[in-house]
Amino acid sequence: MKLDAATSAGDIPEGLLEPALTVGRVTPGSLDDQVLAFPETKPPKQWYFALAITLTAALIGVISIGYTFITGIGAWGNSSPVFWAFDIINFVFWVGIGHAGTLISAILFLFRKRWRNAIARFAEAMTIFAVICAVIFPLIHVGRPWLAYWLFPYPNQRALWTNFRSPLLWDVFAVNTYFSVSLMFWYLGLIPDIASMRDRTTSKLRKVIYTILAVGWRGAATHWQHYEKAYLLLAGLATGLVLSVHSVVSFDFATSVVPGWHMTIFPPYFVAGAIFAGFAMVVMVLVVVRETMELKNLITMRHLDVMNKVILSMSCIMGYSYMMEGFTAWYSMNEFLHHGFMNIVTGTYGWAGWVTISCNILIPQILWFKKARASYFWMILVAVGVTIGMWFERFVIIVISLHQDFLPSAWRIYKPTMVDFGVLLGTFGIFFTLVLLFARVLPVIATTEVKAILPDAQPSHHGDEHHA
Amino acid sequence: MADVTRKPIRQPIVDRATALLAGPFLLGQRALGLVFQPDKSPGDPPPEPAALRISIKPPEHAIKRRG
Amino acid sequence: MKTRLPDHGPLETPKFWRTLEERVETLDAQEAAHHEFLPSAGPGAFDDVHGLPVQDGFSRRDFFGLVGAAAAVAATVACDRKGQGTVVPYTKRPVEVTPGVANYYASATNEGRRVYPVLVKTREGRPIHITGNDEHPGVKGKTSPRTLADVLRLYDPDRLRAPKANGRTLGWTEAEGQLQAALKSAKASGKAVLLVSGAVVSPSRKALLADLKAALPTLEHLAYEPVAGDGAEEAAKASFGQSVDVQPRLDKAKVILSLGADFLSGEDPESLGAWGAQRRLKSAKDNINRLWVLEGPLTLTGTNADQRVPVVPSRLAAVAFALAKELAAKGVSLPAGTDLSAIPAQSEVPAKAWSNLVKDLQHAGRNAVVLCGAQMPAEAHQAAHLLNAMLGSEAVSVRAAEPLATVKDLETATKGMGEGRYAAAIFWDVNPAYTFPKASAWKEALAKVPFRAWIGQVEDETAAQCQLLLPENHWLESWGDFSTASAAVLQQPTIGTLYDTKQGEDVLLDAAKALGAATADNYHAYLQARWQKSLPLGTSFAQALHDGLVKGEDKAASPAFKGASVAAAAKKAADSKPQGLELVLFPGFATHDGRHANNSWLQETPDPISKMTWDNPVAVSVQDAQAMGIQEGDYVSLSLDGTTLRLPAILQPGQAKGVIALALGYGRTTGGVAKGVGVDAFPLLGLDPASAHVRKGAKLAKAGGKKELSRTQSHHRMEGRDIVRSLTMDEFEHHPQGHHHAPEIVSLYEDQKFPDHKWGMVIDLAACTGCSACVVACQSENNVPVVGPEQVARGREMHWIRIDRYYEGELENPKVVHQPMLCQHCDNAPCENVCPVNATNHSPEGLNQMAYNRCVGTRYCGNNCPYKVRRFNFLEYTAYKTEPETLANNPEVTVRPRGVMEKCSFCVQRINDVKIRAKGDGRAILDGEITTACMAGCPSDAIVFGDLKDPKSKVSQLVTASRAYRVLEELGAKPAITYLADLKNPAAGE
């Protein structure tokens, strides 16, 4: 009513105006100078320091994995009935972390959420790295890793074939597809930026590398036309995968008979949880990137605010899912399900259940407050909390459900070993090592995409007012 | 607590690592040798079987039920 | 295929053209047509193998061939399993051995006074599996868990392989020369010679000892069985004036009263067989016996009781005498001279149960039997003898037996040794340095004997005290004979001696010869000569060896009960008041008196009650534990008479308040397996033979710290789930299915068809006592690895069959149920569809089978198995075996490497063996012809295996029985194992 009048009058109230996506004066040239310059400069001492830490962690992981290869899965705490523990927890955790990137770059792209442009590149990179961490586990967790390739249906002279009824096999396909499409999508977006870097660099070696990587990008109109089409297509493809990959991962559990696993709610619940964990990780890393790489003008508080809102909404979905689990346990009148749920809140591992609930449901509620969404302290607290909480959620699902299932005679307490922690630490090391390397060698912000959302780039009748 | 193992568990690490590294190397060497030096005599004869540590003798004077 | 270039001839007039270019006859096309194949190709230039043109030098194809071959061979080499040996065929095949065909020998062994007639399966000359002798009318093809596991003891790597004197290995001639010289000098000087051996149940051994005694008059022989129960021996001497062997005859028992007797524990296959026969009921109208149990600690027999009352062991005798008094008051006549006036009315058993018990015993009369636990005090045994005499019980056989030495006799011997009475001491298959309670005094005294010889298999604590060590044959390498109530049993070797060993009898025979006795060349000849004299007409010695026995009732006398002995015992029983905590020392399930402690199969077989492996924690009653604040696994210090032990405690539901129980046979200081496992409880043994195993005044205190228990079951309640069904006779008659009704299982898929066979199993929980013989039988048959205490504590034991034991009701005296749990071979198996590589799948005969070679080890199947019967090789467990233990492996069953899932296969190798034989004979498989190892090992015949496709088979008939149900049937997995509900037969109104 009033709004119509206001719009027609070209006088939108301040609060309803879409704020600018960058802060201060950003021109295409300054953007290039700011973002594409990183790989050209010498990294600061802190970067080396951070890399040393992450590499150490990665090395611990490699040693732990090597030890596991030598001794066998017995190096871990896994036992009967908890045949899966840290291995699959970590796998699901990292696949989950890998969800934010594709969601941001694909789904939000299709929804024309322009704020995504500044953070998409970084989030996508994190997706790739997280999936790399995730795929380690299916390989190392099998009893005979040297035969892990048997999980692929390849023609062989023994005429042996895989079992397509096994969700584990679906996993192999889902994760591989997700990884390859994410990688393609990421690389496609990188091409124009790499071309810019190729054109800017003075180093001969870099020039050769960038020339190869830029696959002959000249910025011609046909290039852009093809690029946009391919980007749109891959975005469409990736959108489906964002939803499918974690749904398929959840099938590992949902299609089994284990009480606490066998639930129809699992696919959407897992996808929501994955987005939740992924966004938390992105927020955590973005805050650091924003501060240390001086990108405050491009990654604005508004980005973080929106991200925090997504985290908050996902937290609510998680809360709903937890409640539904409890409701199902009660309403089904299934003694096994009921026992399993009570284990989460009161059992031996009840503490893990409460860590999950506190970190995933209770703490994020602080984000209802605008101040909290604008405060580093609160958003980092929430993000770290969610990361811990989501890891423990998988612990709850896997270990608590398995350690007490149908026959009480087989019930047993699970205890992880140092090797378990070593492998977990190692994947964090690998992940952050890759993040650090990425931040130094490739443009962390998709300059071409951000150029499209610069105030100057938008043919807008408000444009003049802003600069006035 | 006594360990069941009278000897510490023999870790196959050395066996496996050696086989993994040396196997392809030696075989590759031999494969190339076959191609490039056709005059070379075939490999060594197979090693003698190791002597059984315990010889198993059937019982004397015992009468079996069936078998 | 050989490709030859067709001779085209001139191209000027092509009749057919292949391309337009060819048609228009361009020069290029002519060239191309001519050179369609390779330019230099001419006749003879083709490779004969592939039909491909030969190239000069190293071709691409050759390169790839080599790379492929190299990679394949490299991969094969890299995947090499260690311990891979060379298979060498026989150069001279022994006549008896056909490679690939098993030989079976009848033989026998004993444990104390109990004799186990067995059938030994050998493969390529190696004994690999033991079952009971099916010809024996008593054991009917069954044997005990420890006998089953004894095959591993044959291959014990710690066995002494040659004689040794003062640490020096020497030949037999020299070794025996030393022994004989010592004996000769003893004979010359007239000094005594001490010979300590186990129980003498062999007539030939007895004769041999008599021969030796004749040649060496100063020989003093002690038959020492440290856990046979000195109380029983004392009571026998009092009640019958001589040693007796008491054997239950449960087939004749309608009412059984157990005073702490554990006759269902698995070591008595005859009792278990009779028990099973009376419990496998088809309908509620069938006869069933009733078992009353009064006991302190919870025994396996107690868990199977229809009615059980926890009673402190020192009060058992008073209760039993009160029962006799009450029965006498009700008109049952007392034996002459019986005086029960000292006995007051009892207060231990609740009034209602008491009147029911009295009624039951009186009503059953001759078909009632009272059995007393070997470890119980002498008075309790005397009371049991009295009650049996009063009832005129036919359900027990009391036979005169060779006397056993008690602790008192050992103490006397110690004194004698200390005083220098003995010139020589020989220890034959006994270990008093470990089993005698005052071990240090023993060792000190023994050191004063100038010549000490030891005959045994594995150097033990006693061997460490002896100068001359003579390695003895395992019984599977030995000759012998035994007398049992229903047949005389023969022992014959099933393998030539593995090492330079001799059997003890041969050593003594040689000694007797050296001392001037005229006797046979060797024990085999001695035995044969004796038997040829006494064999029934028409039976040859060879036939007796073939059968393993000579049937015929044993003619040992049944001594009469002496009523006059009662008065003193009754007085003592009435005065016996509990004082402090009462410690009951019982033989360990795995170790017995410690002689089996070096057997890793037994160490890892869970105790049937506590489910402990590799340890002997002290069992504390729930009430006492609560009062003292003791929790499972807490270290406690147990002190008695100045001896203090620090050991972990477990809470034992059903154990009488004020009673603590501890297993003997642990805490050995020798033996690669046995060393340091558990705590040695022998120092707590009393020196009063009347009550050596039941000690008053023990003190228990928390000692700080907690032990991670190597226990295979840590949760003991069923949580109200429908897992083990237990019915009273009344319920069995009226609602055998209770409130359960078979769930309707709907599937979208068509059921799998089983064209020829559909294997299935029925387990009767009413007959199963939980004795765990099946566990050991399976371990032996299927090469199940042993993983050790640390791995068990982590839940990684590998047993393919386990016995689940649940407590129900109040913890002070719970109802206990046992359930053998193994792969259920579900038709709709949850494990099968989750395996990504199809390593586990369903056979057309209904077996859920594992392809170990295909298994990658995702362990998903383990997660999805509702019964949790899948076992994963978390580590290279097979490498835990030390040579020559691997000789005990069954060659029919694959040894599983690390990273592979395994589980029960329904003994598929046995199924196939029978199938092949039946096919060879051109006949159908008979019902009952295929036995799984667990079924063959089950002494109470609770397990039945067979073809469900055959409507006349035993399984097919049992699956529809009124007690039949399937565990977790509602999950829709369609298990192939049907359980028959447990039955309890409590007295009316209880």
Please describe what this structure looks like:
The complex is a heterotrimer of chains A (468), B (67) and C (990). With 468 residues, chain A is mostly helical. Helices cover 68% and strands 0% of the residues of chain A. Chain A has a single domain (26-151, 165-454), classed as Up-down Bundle (Formate dehydrogenase/DMSO reductase fold). Chain A has 18 helices and no strands. In chain A, helix 3 packs antiparallel against helix 16 (418-441), helix 4 (86-97) packs antiparallel against helix 6 (116-140) and helix 10 packs antiparallel against helix 11. The model of chain A is unreliable at 1-9 and 463-468 (pLDDT under 50). Chain B is built from one helix and one strand; from the N terminus they run αβ. Chain C is built from 29 helices and 37 strands. The relative contact order of chain C is 0.12. Chain A binds chain B through residues 70-71, and chain B through 11-13, 16. Chain C: It comes from Geothrix limicola. Chain C: This is Molybdopterin oxidoreductase. Chain C: Residues 759-789, 814-845 form the 4Fe-4S ferredoxin-type domain.
The secondary structure category of chain A is mainly alpha
* Element-by-element helix/strand order of chain B: HE
CATH architecture of chain A: Up-down Bundle
Order of helices and strands of chain A: HHHHHHHHHHHHHHHHHH
If helices are DSSP runs of H or I spanning 4 or more residues, what is the number of helices of chain B? 1
Globular, elongated, flat, extended or rod-shaped: what is the shape of chain A? globular
The low-confidence runs of chain B, each spanning 5 or more residues with pLDDT under 50, are none
Distance between the termini of chain A: 29 Å
In helices, the fraction of residues of chain B equals: 25-40%
Please tell me how large the radius of gyration of chain A is. Answer: 24 Å
According to CATH, the fold-level topology of chain A is: Formate dehydrogenase/DMSO reductase fold
Percentage of residues in DSSP E strands of chain A: under 5%
Family (chain A): Belongs to the NrfD family.
Membrane topology (chain A): Multi-pass membrane protein
Main location (chain A): membrane
Protein name (chain A): Polysulfide reductase chain C
